[in-house]
UniProtKB/TrEMBL annotation:
GO terms for biological process: D-alanine transmembrane transport; L-alanine transport; L-isoleucine import across plasma membrane; L-valine import across plasma membrane. Keywords: ATP-binding, Cell membrane, Membrane, Nucleotide-binding, Transport. InterPro entries: AAA+_ATPase (IPR003593), ABC_AA/LPS_Transport (IPR051120), ABC_transporter-like_ATP-bd (IPR003439), BCA_ABC_TP_C (IPR032823), P-loop_NTPase (IPR027417). The keyword Metal-binding does not apply. Residues 8-271 form the ABC transporter domain. This is Amino acid/amide ABC transporter ATP-binding protein 1 (HAAT family). The keyword Nucleotide-binding applies. GO terms for cellular component: plasma membrane. GO terms for molecular function: ATP binding; ATP hydrolysis activity; L-isoleucine transmembrane transporter activity; L-phenylalanine transmembrane transporter activity; L-valine transmembrane transporter activity. CDD domains: ABC_Mj1267_LivG_branched (cd03219). PANTHER family: AMINO ACID ABC TRANSPORTER ATP-BINDING PROTEIN, CONSERVED COMPONENT OF ABC TRANSPORTER FOR NATURAL AMINO ACIDS-RELATED. The lineage of its organism: Bacteria, Pseudomonadati, Pseudomonadota, Betaproteobacteria, Burkholderiales.
């Protein structure tokens, strides 16, 4: 399955922690231009799977491929250079950096490489180009600044007017936005978002939903894997949904089919849903 697919492929992946199975023989495929949502109750293994794909954690068994190349043995920085960007479940920003510098930092993987996955062939040349401010180096910096500017402006008045402010001064929701902006500035081929709407109110969640829809229009080849509990967002942005429960795939398919599956409803609520009510609001 995975070795030939053009995109991101997870094949029979498991992760065990001291006898506890967090991910149990999970397989999935994410094609370029597709948005795949990964949902499930707390402790289902969703964030662990993101950690495994991005190289932050190691698989116990199975294989992970990117465009036919096996990546599960690579360190996270190498996987990032190959075109996989990710956000984290809890916001991770550099508090003392300005919003602008934080997003510029996200461009460095492309700035300091000759292409996805390649490390500088001549670091000394790059140092000299920086010291003497050569025209080639200035052109590269200008290109990265244009990317940073375009990325920040995707978030409207949430980040661009605050570009000179330190990250620590931002609200929680804007820190989440900043982290996503930093990842987008690296221009990844595949974007892994771990609960991007966590801590956001309904208005902010709606804005994030519109951003993800806009990204799909602006970057039609960008593959997005989003872990999210807010199923109203999932129903709008996802082409497909995979539901995890206790580390295993419980259901998958288009959003309506997967999310309304009786076993999925029972996994979330501990009972079968007979009719919608206010306690089911988190089901979207």
């Amino acid at each position: 399955m995975a070795g030939q697919i053009n995109g991101l492929a997870v094949q029979d992946v498991s992760r065990h922690f001291s006898g506890v199975t967090a991910v149990d023989c999970v397989s999935l495929a994410l094609e370029p231009g597709e948005t795949l949502a990964l949902v499930g109750p707390n402790g289902a293994g969703k964030s662990t799977l993101i950690q495994l794909i991005s190289g932050v954690d190691r698989i116990s068994s199975g294989r992970i491929f990117l465009n036919g190349r096996r990546i599960d043995r690579l360190p996270p920085e190498r996987i990032a250079r190959l075109g996989v960007g990710r956000s984290f479940q809890t916001s991770r920003v550099f508090p003392a950096l300005s919003v602008w510098d934080s997003v510029m930092l996200g461009t460095q993987a492309n700035l300091l490489s000759g292409g996805h996955g390649k490390i500088l062939a001549n670091a000394a040349h790059e140092v000299l180009a920086t010291m003497f401010n050569t025209s080639g180096w200035r052109h590269r910096i200008e290109r990265q600044e244009a990317i940073a500017r375009e990325t920040l402006q995707l978030f409207g008045d949430r980040l661009w007017p605050r570009k000179d402010q330190p990250a620590f001064s931002l609200s929680y929701a804007n820190r989440r936005r900043l982290e996503i902006a930093r990842v987008l500035a690296g221009q990844p081929d595949f974007l892994l978002l771990d609960e991007p709407a966590a801590g956001m109110n309904p208005t902010e969640t709606g804005e994030l939903t519109e951003l993800l829809l806009a990204l799909r229009r602006m970057r039609p080849n960008l593959g997005i894997l989003v872990v999210e509990h807010k199923l109203s967002l999932v129903r709008r942005v996802a082409d497909r949904v995979i539901v995890l429960n206790q580390g295993r795939v419980l259901a998958q398919g288009d959003p309506d089919h997967a999310l309304d599956h009786p076993e999925v409803v029972e996994a979330y609520l501990g009972r079968q849903r007979r009719r919608p009510n206010s306690s089911d609001a988190h089901l979207g």
